[in-house]
Amino acid sequence: MNAEFDEKEVAREMGEARARIRMSGVPALLARIDAGSFGTTPLNLEMLDALVQALATALAVMKMPRVEKAGPVFFAYVFASEAVDRLLSIGGPEKPEGPEGSLRADQYRDIPNLKSPEGLFSTILKDCSGFLKFYGEHPDSRKRLSRDVEALTCLRSYCHLLAQTLKKLGAEKIDVRITTPRQRYDGWAVSPTEIGESNNLMPIGLDDIVGNEEYVKAAKRLARDVAGFDMAADKNPKEVRNQILFVLGSPGCGKTVTSHAVMRYFLDLCEKHQLPAKTRIIRRTDWASSYQNQSANRLLEIFRDEVFNADAVVGVYWADIDTAFSARGGTELRQEEKSNLGTLFGILDGTVGPKNGKWFLICDANTMHMDEAMISRLAQTPLQAKGPTTPDHFVTLLRDIKLRGKEQWLPISDDEWKKIGKLCVTEGLSGRSVDAIAGRVMTAMEDFEEPDEYFSLPFPEKQKLIAELSVKVDEKMIQEFLKDHLKFEKTAQEKSEEERFTRRVDEIRLHLSAQRAALKPEDETSG
Fold this sequence. Notes:
Elements: H1 7-23, H2 26-33, H3 42-62, H4 72-90, H5 117-136, H6 148-169, E1 177-179, E2 183-186, E3 189-192, H7 213-227, E4 244-249, H8 255-272, E5 277-282, H9 284-293, H10 296-308, E6 313-318, H11 322-328, H12 335-348, E7 359-366, H13 372-375, E8 383-385, H14 391-402, H15 414-426, H16 431-445, H17 459-469, H18 475-519, H19 522-526
Helix pairs in contact: 1-3, 2-5, 3-4, 4-6, 5-6, 7-8, 9-18, 10-12, 11-18, 14-15, 14-16, 15-18, 16-18
């Protein structure tokens, strides 16, 4: 049976997923293994976010119509598979370390009978916590976890082993086909969602974008120009001189969400006017991993076959190309490898690809990693993405978008909101910082102990009870959250961004070197 996945359902399940991960004890265990400088580390937070996203996806799958027959084992399998995928995307080795095989199936013999999300995921998360605690307190100091990167390896291994165990525990064959934002499930067979399928896009529209007015205006115009392509005449009535939009901006300024919103706008516009259209999202992990098992020529084939020669108009988003530029500058790369990467940049400077107005590319880079020499290679002057820059921007983003629907628990006057917005501007906060602060506000609202009857209530009644018990958050509390963020999180967030960038550049260089070694003639390697 094919079932249609609703991405918005994942967003609706995020609150419950966060609560379950918090109650599992995993956050405290990660902090105990590596407390960093301020009680936890950026990598610990990334791991927790990966688990929350995976759990929210599994909870959303459970509520899909016509999927209930798949059963609890399959829903747990979705969580484990999504968690492995997301934990791998954080960085590090591409295959989960640890023993091959699975966990003891008899430990999970009750899972087929756990019909409710509460029973099912409480059991799974309790076991996950126990696995992490065992290695965090291992009697052999050589196996004991002491750093966050070791905890990441441990979590990956657990989720990998759990997925294998559940696969053995489940029915040999189940007739269910689901595509989540990251993976496709055909029964127990899992494969990555193809780059560029529309369900890779965030559930966000242009109305959700705050700031970046110049970026939105230019990208929207380019999308509309390409959407005007005439398939019957096989030409665009407008002369689209430049099909590539290049954007520079600091981390957290909204480059990614703006591009996703433009892509959704493009698809919606084409659907409204019955024009075949698709999008291609070139993710950072796709860019790095393409060099391990595939050559740069393969990526060029993707552009040629699925973008340039597609039977549809196509929008492409290529994020963080500064990693590619920086990898190309590595002194350890030989000239032919630099040329290999250089070929790809032909797409960016307009020398590769037809200028027919049938496709467009939005690519972005971090201003921290782009110098004049790199920028000079581009075919046009980059746009600047600045994100929210005025007090009104920050108020709109925090109150009207991130905390939408929570007005009754925010007894804050317009003047008080303006003070909050001014502080955000003064302290140079980004949209990503506002997202983190909104998360603190949501957590504070839901900071109450559920009565015992809560756990047996149907979903609508749970929502009603949560609304009744939610705590009000005033201006003073939000100011405190802002100060805490500035004191503890902003620097860590920036450091995490820089470390992630360096890690991705190193991955590309490593994969290129590995590819070179693999292609050496046997007599060359032996000599």
